[in-house]
């Protein structure tokens, strides 16, 4: 079902194509806002398609609760990091039993992440997303893969049971790239988040470098945060090595090339089909029988 810039699955491949033709990110006019959406949910099975936590209304009680408690944590982290910068040495000194700024900051980051996780779970804000930053030339292709993998009932993302929403920005950002978010239902179910990542890589040939929790988005934690805390909960190498990713992409590339060659061979084999070329014996005049004496 299409609904103003959104496709709600289960949908057929034909419905996906219709949606993708009508709502191309590269040609969007923002009539339906800053995002196009695809969602999958079968209410008869108790699975309802809902928008992720970061897109909750400003006045939502759970969001307000997270913002209020989270602000205390964020302010304290910034204060602690500034104190470390002002008092701790850049390098550790074992003789004087002094720890480096980096060691002390990392310790604060671990505590901060644990506290945010605790509050987020209390507030029911546990969704997060694998992030992609496609160029204007590649955004439509990547978005098409994700839409069909999620909206169609037997799509590879729908089959994970852990992804029910994805969205794409309708305009590029300051860097010139678009943003695509593929949401996981539970950010702290690491095994399932990893399963989604592997599905993206192995089945769709899409590699995300970072997974960000919605709680961080709501609290304003990004790569330029003054505390220096990492804005991602997971990275791509938490689930696959660089070699495994490269090998998977290489296999996909070879399979695509083989398919292309096979299609070309089939076209060549069909070239001229419908004609029944005459054999040499049919082209030649048959020899006449000699008359009997």
From TrEMBL:
<dbReference type="GO" id="GO:0003743">
    <property type="term" value="F:translation initiation factor activity"/>
</dbReference>
<feature type="compositionally biased region" description="Acidic residues">
    <location>
        <begin position="266"/>
        <end position="284"/>
    </location>
</feature>
<feature type="region of interest" description="Disordered">
    <location>
        <begin position="250"/>
        <end position="293"/>
    </location>
</feature>
<comment type="similarity">
    <text>Belongs to the UPF0696 family.</text>
</comment>
<dbReference type="Pfam" id="PF08939">
    <property type="entry name" value="Bles03"/>
</dbReference>
<keyword id="KW-0396">Initiation factor</keyword>
<protein>
    <submittedName>
        <fullName>Translation Initiation factor eIF-4e-like domain protein</fullName>
    </submittedName>
</protein>
<dbReference type="InterPro" id="IPR015034">
    <property type="entry name" value="Bles03"/>
</dbReference>
<keyword id="KW-0648">Protein biosynthesis</keyword>
<dbReference type="InterPro" id="IPR023398">
    <property type="entry name" value="TIF_eIF4e-like"/>
</dbReference>
């Amino acid at each position: 079902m299409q609904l103003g810039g959104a496709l709600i699955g289960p949908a057929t491949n034909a419905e996906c194509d219709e949606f993708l033709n009508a709502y191309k990110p590269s040609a969007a006019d923002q009539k339906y806002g800053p995002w196009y959406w695809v969602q999958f949910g079968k209410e008869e099975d108790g699975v309802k398609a809902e928008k992720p936590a970061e897109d909750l209304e400003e006045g939502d009680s759970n969001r307000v609760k997270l913002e209020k408690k989270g602000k205390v944590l964020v302010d304290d982290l910034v204060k602690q990091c500034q104190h470390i910068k002002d008092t701790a040495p850049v390098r550790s000194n074992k003789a004087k039993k002094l720890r480096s700024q980096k060691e002390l900051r990392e310790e604060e980051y671990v505590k901060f992440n644990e506290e945010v996780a605790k509050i987020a779970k209390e507030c029911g804000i546990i969704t997060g997303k694998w992030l992609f930053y496609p160029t204007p030339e590649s955004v439509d292709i990547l978005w098409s893969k994700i839409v069909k993998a999620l909206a169609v009932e037997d799509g590879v993302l729908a089959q994970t049971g852990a992804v029910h929403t994805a969205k794409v920005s309708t305009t590029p950002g300051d860097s010139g790239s678009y943003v695509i978010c593929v949401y996981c239902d539970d950010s702290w179910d690491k095994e399932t988040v990893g399963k989604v990542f592997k599905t993206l890589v192995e089945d769709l040939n899409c590699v995300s470098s970072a997974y960000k929790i919605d709680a961080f988005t709501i609290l304003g934690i990004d790569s330029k945060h003054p505390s220096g805390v990492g804005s991602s909960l997971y990275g791509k190498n938490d689930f696959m090595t660089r070699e495994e990713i490269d090998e998977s992409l290489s296999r996909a590339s070879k399979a695509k090339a083989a398919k292309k060659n096979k299609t070309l061979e089939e076209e060549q084999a069909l070239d001229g089909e419908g004609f029944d070329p005459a054999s040499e014996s049919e082209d030649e005049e048959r020899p006449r029988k000699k008359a009997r004496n």
